[in-house]
Write a structure and sequence with these properties.
alpha+beta, Ubiquitin-like (UB roll), binds FE2/S2 (inorganic) cluster
Length: 177
């Protein structure tokens, strides 16, 4: 096991020998965009190695301090420190929860919640049903994007095995509890 330190957000995860950097970050609940599902084609999972060394999963090419690498294509061969290159996924904003505390007391009549779970985004709207007006709304990137930018890529990830299928199924509810 190697320790991977993410300097950008001061977190640490452990990485098993031969495990891709992307997978070990995911197991540590650190999420990067990975629209290609981790096959090395989208280049969205790029990170910068600050300390330590990684090697390619399919060869022995080594990368170290100062190198930018695709997290899905490399595995650590020592303890590693890295930085993000603008690809960290953002979490759900809390506009709706803020509305609940500040405005809901003055609203008469039933409320409805509209949730649109799309391939790339999840939108939530709080609606006053009598007037059919939107009280507040928010949206977030669908966290399944880290397993593929489209449905077919995600299906390919889910077909890798039972563990991958469960990870994908639990991805949305688990991330927003
Ligand atoms: S290149 Fe797409 S996830 Fe790594």
């Amino acid at each position: 096991m190697y320790e991977v330190k993410v300097l950008s957000d001061k977190s640490r995860v452990l990485c098993a020998q031969g495990q891709s950097l992307l997978e070990c970050l995911r197991h540590g609940h650190i999420h990067l965009e990975a629209p290609c599902g981790g096959i090395g084609t989208c280049r969205k999972c790029k990170v910068k190695i600050v300390e330590g060394q990684v090697k390619t999963l399919t060869g022995n090419q080594l990368f170290g301090s100062g190198d930018s690498v695709l997290a899905c294509m490399v595995t650590p061969v020592s303890n590693v420190s890295l930085k993000w290159l603008e690809n960290r996924m953002q979490g759900m904003q809390s506009d709706v929860a803020e509305t609940e505390t500040s405005t809901l007391g003055s609203i008469n009549g039933p409320l409805g919640l509209s949730v649109d779970i799309g391939t790339t985004g999840i939108s939530v709207a709080l609606i006053q049903l009598l007037t059919k007006s939107i009280i507040n709304q928010t949206s977030v990137v669908n966290p399944q994007v880290e397993f593929g930018g489209d449905v077919m890529t995600r299906a390919g990830y889910a077909n890798k095995g039972e563990d991958e299928l469960k990870i994908l199924q639990k991805c949305c509810p688990k991330r927003h509890q």
